[in-house]
Amino acid sequence: MTTLAHHTTRTAGVDEILLAEMCAELFASLPRSDQRTKGAVYVRGLLRAEGRKSIRKLAAVSGGEVSEQGLHHFVSSSTWDWRPIRAALARYVTRTIPVHAWVVRPMITPKAGEHSVGVDRGFSAEAGQVLNAQYAVGVWAASDEGASPVNWRLHLPKPWLDDEDKRSRAAIPVGVAAESMAGCAVSACLETGGFWGLPVRPVVLDARSTEVGGTVRRLQAAGLPLFVRVSASQGLVLAQQALPGRVSGPVSAHQLMAEVRHLRRPVHVPGSRSGRHSAATVPVRLPGTGREGRELLLVGHWDGRGGPVGYWLTDITSASLSTLVGLSRLVAGVDDNFDRITDRTGIRDYVGRSYDGWHRHVTLASAAHAVAALSEVAFDRYAS
Question: A Pfam family this protein belongs to (predicted)?
Answer without folding.
Answer: DDE_5
